[in-house]
TrEMBL record:
The keyword Transmembrane applies. It is a multi-pass membrane protein. This is Branched-chain amino acid transport system carrier protein. The keyword DNA-binding does not apply. One of its GO terms (cellular component) is plasma membrane. Coiled coil: none annotated. It comes from Psittacicella melopsittaci. Belongs to the branched chain amino acid transporter family. Component of the transport system for branched-chain amino acids. GO terms for biological process: isoleucine transport; L-leucine transport. Pfam families: Branch_AA_trans.
Amino acid sequence: MKRVVLSGLMLMSFFFGAGNLIYPPLAGLNAGSEFLSVTTGFTLTAVVIPFLTILAVALSGDSALSLAGRVGKLYGLVFTVIIILSIGPLFGIPRVANVSLEIGVKPLLDSSGLGGNDSISLAGLLYIFFFFLMAFVLALYGEQLVDSIGKYLSPALVIFTMALVLVYAFSSSPKEVGQVHEEYVSGAFFKGAFDGYGTLDAIAAVAFAGLIVNALRPSPDTPAKVVFSGVVKAGFIACVLLAVIYFGLAYVGNVSAVSGKSTGADILVYASEESFGAAGQLVFAIIVFLACITTAVGLLKTLSTYSRNLFGLFSEKSWLIIYTLFSAVLSVQGLNSVLKTSVPMIYLTYPITIALVLVTLLNKWTKDRAWVYFWVALLVTPVAFADAFRIFSANYFNGSIDLLGGLRDYIPLANTDFSWVTPLVLALVIGFLFPKKPVNNFLLGDVDAEARRKKQEAEEKYGEVL
């Protein structure tokens, strides 16, 4: 049980990174009187979906490839590479490093006169070097990862964060719930759900699940059902802690309209100063650093292990060095550049991940209709790609290019950024109601055989669970 608790704490700290810290208070601020609807939507995509993703990956194997491989080998490989790049060197790891610098350390540097006027000063560069050196060392000693993260860094993160929330909540600081932001007036639940996308937890869960599975498998002979039971408990511990922290941070933002702040980081700095006085900025910097370093460690460790198993070529240590150096170089480009890249990838990866997770968890009913995976891939992927390209073109070209064109006007929920839901429902209906057809093509591979093989493996391992 001790191992399960430590694994749950480790998983929580891996999830609780940059976006998890700054998005909840901003969502709470914008929610106004729609606080409950917004936080419910946020919890769905930032807590519930990641938890279900962990279960789906554990049931299908221990990796993104085992999850998406139910569609076909090539599809699974492409999906895995996109996930690795998204949560890894392209923006996942550089984002946590930049956030810890921009909102945690830079205010301290500025107050001491070391901040400089450039995007990243010499002191900032030294911090980036220190951040990635520490992340590399912690990730390198993977055998002690559960103990070092679970015993020390995770509890420290929870204690500091909840101390901030509770002290601020019961302080005499003026509190005021502001007006509902115009974007939240209609469809507050969906807006909160989309805010939860920014945490990246659903796609990160695809990677972290394998780490938890291996941490709870002390030997190759450990029964799969025992491992899965441990994964369920560890995931539940992590997600309950996250839900409590998110609610607290959202509350801080919700009652901070009087501060006049407009970003999640500014709200938390204000709350820290109001709660702890002159030491508030330092307390906030500690919270940010703990949140970001634990996430960076988890991502580096997971991705280096994945890459060794998936591609071979290099040792795990070599992959770790590659990802660390590449992420550090991109981090120097600054936070705005990183965020510009991240949004289109979120639009692409989240719908596909959620769709695959849902179908995998419906394994008990889909095992005789393997081609449902084909329909999910066929209908959801193009819509997700169109949404991603629309945002990408708006960010990098002179105008937004919508590949769906006028068709978007006829897709339910398209105006809430959930245009992929209707294709998913349609794919499930086709897959469940119509007779099974063999599917074999150059892009997806032998979908029927591949999905059937994955299901057979899952049934042999988990039987009663499924």
